[in-house]
Design brief:
Layout: H1 6-23, H2 27-41, H3 47-52, H4 65-77, H5 81-89, H6 94-97, H7 105-115, H8 120-128, H9 139-158, E1 161-162, H10 163-178, E2 183-188, H11 190-193, E3 198-199, E4 202-208, H12 211-219, E5 224-230, E6 234-239, E7 244-250, H13 255-263, H14 266-278, E8 281-283, E9 288-290, E10 296-297, H15 302-308, H16 324-329, E11 344-345, H17 359-368, E12 373-379, H18 391-407, E13 412-420, H19 431-436, E14 439-443, H20 452-464, E15 468-471, H21 489-499, E16 502-506, H22 516-524, E17 529-532, H23 544-553, H24 567-574
Parallel strand pairs: 4-7, 11-12, 12-13, 13-14, 14-15, 15-16, 16-17
Antiparallel strand pairs: 1-3, 2-4, 5-6, 6-7, 8-9, 9-10
Helix pairs in contact: 1-2, 1-7, 8-9, 13-15, 20-21, 22-23
Bound molecules: zinc ion (2 copies).
Length: 579
């Protein structure tokens, strides 16, 4: 058994103090916890060692009887009952709410008790909807300051944006610049073009002989909040949502070299430069130069540059130095998937749980995208926050799906459920209910902070459950917010490969889970995948491109992704009942 370190103990005591403060406890008591935390954090010797050698912990400065008893319990049992009771009463996530500038314990308590807000995301949504201003001593101005504080916090924490923020903005900019008569070509470069899961800042590249005119339009875009710098061929701005962007203008004849250079990644480009050097050339963003006589070679397309170096053109999403250069030389680049390859989805929500659209609206939207099948998977009963379905409501929903199927015959509908994997690894519906569903998607939403062994055991139990066809968002990460659970993913892959359970690539830009690197490892382990938008509304189906990009970044091929199968084959492979 490993004992908590002084740092961990101090952290726990500070968290206790924070929750007691929100609860409105006696300030002396709160100060005692803070003082003990401070002393313990800076104590020269590990308390666990002192405790093991039988020292009286009360001899430490700031540690009285009450705290000494708690430390003793913590070392003996690895748990603290007081903490468990406290967090059952006051949501632990309120501690993050306390981190918001302008939010003190009293306000955190009011927002929690009056408006039911327990998370930073919840407070942000309420502020955006103008709900905070109704609280006592609040008003519009303070609400705006809180919102600004939350946004600044998000930037500080990650400095990165997810694709759902970066992509639509980039499309708008490209549309405006692309319409200019002076612009021959315009593209995003950098990590957005490579479709990385998060984006640091945006890079735009324009092929033009009139850079001043193009940059003039760029800085006047309505979303630009601030111009950070401007030169002859490059301008930097900050958009209103906090994203920064560079626009670089290059002569059309140098487009290919520049686009290749600014797309990156750095490690891909290092390899490409080395390759050029071995052939007697130096390469930078302007040109390829023959070292022997200094003769420049210009490339107006990337393909021409790659070809000159003896390589097939490498799609941007592969440019990470994960073996793509070798593959491009030997003609072994993966064919890749396109959005049109996806024939249906098996994970989406409706107004029956926490979705925004009815089953019929979801079905019609899926049909309009050309889907051949859709499984409705609302949340299971224990997920109260998402209005999970009781067994009774599940039965009612089955009749509703049949009725919608009759009205929307162009797409095959099935009833599934996104079923909670409970803390002990069991599922949230009994076996006979699971057996009555066409399609069971299992999810670990709760307890993601459990230790590796417990979490892995839960995932494996779900994978091995004969009713479960898909394990959704397998790591549970939320991009720019929290890392995934500490699962033993190799064990998960081996189990899924053995049982044939599909692992999801969740296409939501908040998740992209499995992540690209794990897609690659899953494939190597022989796992079959499935890409789902986890749509909570009809517009979420647009996120499919992010899921497909993630699959491509992980070198997935169509035959490894189950929902590239047309309806009849999908039905057969999934053992679905013909209706
Ligand atoms: Zn989920
Ligand atoms: Zn879901």
């Amino acid at each position: 058994m490993s004992y908590p370190t002084n740092r961990q103990i101090a952290d726990l005591l500070n968290r206790i103090a924070g929750l007691l403060e929100i609860k409105g406890e006696n300030p002396f008591k709160i100060r005692a916890y803070r003082r003990a935390a401070e002393q313990i954090a800076h104590h020269g010797q590990e308390l666990a060692e002192l405790w093991q050698s039988g020292d009286d912990l009360r001899r430490l400065e700031g540690v009285g009887q009450a705290i000494a008893d708690k430390l003793d319990e913590l070392f003996r049992t690895g748990r603290l009952e007081f903490w468990e009771r406290l967090t059952a009463e006051v949501p632990e996530s309120l501690l993050e709410v306390l981190e918001i500038p302008e939010v003190g314990p009293a306000l955190a308590r009011t927002m929690w008790q009056e408006l039911g807000l327990t998370t930073v995301a919840g407070v942000q949504a309420a502020a955006e909807q103008g709900k905070l201003r109704t609280l006592p001593r609040m008003g519009k101005k303070k609400e705006a300051r809180i919102l600004a504080g939350i946004r600044a916090m998000a930037r500080r924490q990650t400095g990165r944006f997810h694709l759902g923020q970066a992509w639509p903005l980039a499309r708008q900019v490209l549309a405006v610049l692309g319409d200019l008569p002076q612009v021959v070509r315009v593209e995003t470069a950098g990590s957005l073009r490579r479709m990385r899961d998060t984006i640091g800042d945006l890079d735009f590249l324009a092929a033009t002989d009139h850079p001043a005119a193009v940059m003039e339009v760029f800085v006047r875009l309505p979303d630009v909040a601030e111009v950070l710098g401007s030169g002859e061929t490059k301008t930097s701005v900050r958009f209103k949502n906090g994203l920064q962007a560079d626009l670089r203008c290059v002569p059309p004849a140098r487009w290919g070299t520049a686009l290749q250079y600014f797309t990156g990644s750095k490690s891909h480009n290092v390899k490409i430069r080395e390759l050029a050097q071995r052939q007697g050339y130096s390469l930078n963003e302007y040109a390829l130069t023959r070292e022997q006589d200094g003769k420049p070679f210009l490339f107006d397309t990337e393909a021409a540059l790659y070809e000159f170096l003896g390589l097939a053109w490498i799609p941007p999403h592969l440019r990470e130095d994960w073996g793509e250069i070798e593959a491009a030389r030997s003609g072994a680049l993966p064919a890749g998937l396109s959005v049109a390859d996806i024939r249906g989805e098996v994970h989406c929500h409706s107004t029956w749980s926490d979705g925004r659209n009815t089953i019929e609206e979801m079905a019609r939207a899926a049909l309009a995208r050309g889907y051949e099948y859709l499984v409705i998977t609302d949340h299971s009963r224990s997920l109260g926050v998402a209005n999970g379905l009781s067994v009774e409501r599940l039965r009612q929903q089955s009749r509703e799906i049949e009725a919608v199927q009759a009205r929307v015959p162009g797409i095959r509908l099935w009833q599934g459920a996104e079923v909670e994997v409970k803390a002990d690894g069991s599922l949230d519906y009994p076996d006979d209910v699971l057996a009555g569903l066409d399609f069971v998607v299992a999810s670990v939403h709760t307890g993601l902070r459990q230790d590796r062994e417990t979490l892995t055991r839960r995932a494996l139990a779900a994978i091995q459950n004969p009713h479960v066809k898909v394990l959704a968002h397998p790591t549970g990460r939320l991009l720019t917010d929290r890392p995934g659970g500490d699962f033993d993913m190799e064990a998960v892959f081996q189990a899924a490969a053995r049982t044939g359970t599909l692992l999801e690539i969740n296409a939501s830009p908040y998740r992209l889970d499995l992540p690209d690197v794990l897609v690659r490892r899953a494939i190597a382990a022989g796992v079959k995948l499935i890409i789902n938008c986890d749509a909570h509304g009809v517009e979420d189906f647009d996120n499919l491109q992010f899921g497909v990009a993630t699959a491509n970044r992980g070198w997935a091929a169509a035959e490894q992704v189950a929902n590239t199968l047309p309806l009849a084959e999908f039905e057969a492979q999934m053992g679905l009942v013909q209706k």
